[in-house]
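Input.
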Amino acid sequence: FTDKLDVSWRHFFKTDSREEVEARCRAAGIQWQWLDNDELQTRTHCPAVIRHPLTGARSFFNQVQLHHIYCLDADVRDDLIGLFGIDNMPRHVYYGDGTPIEDEVMELVGQLYEACAVRFDWQQGDVVLMDNMLAAHARDPFEGPRKIVVAMGDMFDRADLNACSTAPNRQTLEEEVGQ
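Output.
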């Protein structure tokens, strides 16, 4: 959490109290470290694949493409690494054992998402209902004005989801993605 680059920890946690932030991180199983300049670094181990709490279906449910630096424009990625170093990037993702997820793996994940993509032309008044755990969603580029209203249903705590794997290494991730 780097102020002026991303949201500050105060804004994200809605508090000025480091002790409150630490208590919330501790309760959620999040590792934290206070850095210079009043910055906070957090690390969270999350499964790559979960079982849907109602259907039992296996789901590649994570935010790897949102947080992995491979998904940034190359110039932005290079500038951020130059400014902060790889260990202090505002957001980044690793395998569960802490080793880097290779660019080739991220490219494959992107190709698989694209191969499974469903696109349609939105019409005024359209309503889309989706189960966020069973269908990944993204935002393709668009032109012109638009207004999307979102309503969310039941939220699940990570502890309530049964992980199929914590994807500790490349082999496990490849096995999970390949199934």
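The beta strands are 31-35, 39-43, 49-51, 58-60, 162-165.
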